[in-house]
UniProtKB/TrEMBL annotation:
Record-stated family: Belongs to the peptidase M7 family.
Named cofactor requirement(s): Ca(2+); Zn(2+)
Enzyme Commission code(s) on record: 3.4.24.77
Cofactor note: Binds 1 Ca(2+) ion per subunit.
Residues the record lists as binding Ca(2+): D152, T154
Domain of life the protein comes from: Bacteria
Stated name of the protein: Extracellular small neutral protease
An example Gene Ontology biological process: proteolysis
Keywords noted in UniProt: Calcium, Disulfide bond, Hydrolase, Metal-binding, Metalloprotease, Protease, Secreted, Signal, Zinc
Chief subcellular location: secreted
Species per Swiss-Prot/TrEMBL record: Streptomyces calvus
Compartments reported by the entry: Secreted
């Protein structure tokens, strides 16, 4: 949900970090890596869609490589995230995890700092909150303080996590669609994926993971492990 929050909206809400239960933004709040110029609100772009897809594929590859190295009979794929760099959003991240784990069956999110597939960061960025990958298997979700003052913070977090699970943005969608992000406006507080989104994630982590796992297993065989 990469978007800028209009100043008029911020003024109208009159909400501070304390009112949202986020605490006070630390003076040394992180700035997102590789910060770029702001993009237009809700517009989306082919570049952004490609970046979100790359993030999903990086996480998928990471999970598949771990499964190939340590086979398990568990049907659901476990994706580990590190939330230690976003302490102000611990409650929202935990709630987002609960929402996704209760909504889909083929992938499960799990907190952990060792061998994490992706991480959450917090700070200030004119682009708002977003998911990103460096293209080499390392991905993160950045949660912006200002945006989370204006929009429902759990919805923002669950939306960005949706990118990790393979879902693209659809800013023109209704509030009932999680990946419509900030499109419906600040009054939208729905943090749950709808039936179509749930089905898509289950499909991606069944078919997509099978292909990624096969590739990882062949790579292991080739390396002689």
């Amino acid at each position: 949900m990469r978007m800028r929050t209009p100043l008029s909206v911020l003024a109208a809400t009159g909400l501070g970090l304390t009112a949202l239960g986020l605490g006070t933004a630390p003076a040394s709040a992180a700035t997102a890596p590789d910060a770029a110029a702001p993009v237009a609100a809700y517009a989306g772009s082919a570049e952004e869609a490609a970046a979100n897809r790359a993030f999903f594929e990086a996480v998928l590859k990471s999970a598949a490589e771990k499964r190939a190295a340590n086979p398990t009979g568990t049907a659901a794929v476990t994706v580990v995230y590190d939330a230690s760099r976003a302490p102000s959003f611990a409650t929202q991240i935990a709630r987002s995890t609960q929402i996704w784990n209760s909504s889909v069956s083929n992938v499960r999110l799990q907190s952990g700092t060792s061998g994490a597939d992706f991480a959450y960061y917090e700070g200030n960025d004119s682009r708002g909150s977003y998911a990103s990958t460096d293209g080499h298997g390392n991905g993160y979700i950045f949660l912006d303080y200002q945006q989370n003052q204006t929009y429902d913070s759990t919805r923002v977090t669950a939306h960005e996590t949706g990118h990790v699970l393979g879902l693209p943005d659809n800013y023109s969608g209704p509030c009932s669609e999680l990946m419509s992000g900030g499109g419906p406006g600040p009054s939208c507080t729905n943090a749950y994926p709808n039936a179509t989104e749930r089905s898509r994630v289950n499909q991606l982590w069944a078919n997509g993971f099978a292909a990624a796992l096969d590739k990882a297993e062949k790579a292991l065989e080739k390396s002689g492990r």
